[in-house]
Amino acid sequence: xxxxxxxxxxxxxxxxxxxxxTPEAQKAARYVLENPTDVGxxxxxxxxxxxxxxxxxxxxxxxxxxxxxxxDFRAPFRDAIRRGTVSFPDRARWLQxxxxxGELGGLYADxxxxxxxxxxxxxxxISEEALKAAATDIWNSRQIYTLGVGVNNSNARNFTxxxxxxxxxxxxxxxxxxxxxxxxxxxxxxxxxxxxxxxPYRTEVIEAIKLAREQGMTVVGLSDSPASPVILNANHGFVxxxxxxxxxxxxxxxxxxxxxxxxxxxxxSSDEIVERVERFHRRRHQLGLxxxxxx
Length: 295
Known about the structure:
InterPro entries: Homeodomain-like_sf, HTH_RpiR, RpiR-like, RpiR-like_SIS, SIS_dom, SIS_dom_sf, WH-like_DNA-bd_sf. It is globular, with a radius of gyration of 22 Å. Strand 4 (218-223), helix 13 (229-232) and strand 5 form a beta-alpha-beta unit. 35% of the residues are buried. The protein is built from 15 helices and five strands. The protein has helices at residues 3-16, 23-34, 36-41, 44-51, 55-64, 70-83, 91-99, 105-124, 128-139, 151-163, 180-183, 203-214, 229-232, 252-268, 271-286, and strands at residues 144-148, 170-173, 192-196, 218-223, 236-239. By secondary structure, the protein is α/β, with parallel strands linked by helices.
């Protein structure tokens, strides 16, 4: 097991033990979950100051989740940094060239760099097994409701649209003129809610997740922090990196993860789904929805 996976396991352990932590330990854990790279480069005093808690709080938190102390807790994070996570050696030089290209070159480089980092960080923290488990629950469910508001409403609808080319049980919510809570009125343990929101977290999404859990639904959550109420209350939680130089959270990794999740659903589905996709596109051709390419 590589060091990046080990540090991910440590973060998962923090979320699993969240309810058992004291309020002060939760403050320390929240800082770790939202700033994991700081753990590898900070002393216990430095990270405690950043998290606005006492150094002993970090020591107690580390012991509560099974470590001898902060240094033991910190070790996998230090190893991950030392080994490095950059995948493409030439990327830095390419980005520097873009940054020097002109007045808008710096912004262009920042946007491109953020998009690439978001993809790498997102998929670097998600295992094949976790995606397969979520996809299997989705495939075995009766109805799937995908919830997003604001920019994530379009992401949820795009996911639902793609799924509908082969499956009938996907629904994007809130439906026009409705609310997410009303749309889930008759959902139960046979159904799945896929919920998406990033900081600052939308109240209606958080409330819908709580309602879904009360009704016995399986929740798949996508959010930008392991400490997000979406992740903490999900059966299957996936952290997406959403950093951007702009004023809005980036959707790049959210869209990529949703596309990957859908591909896993197709992979665990029956042969009938492939036949439905073929019939769907054959019908489109027959109805003239695609422009014929010149011979």
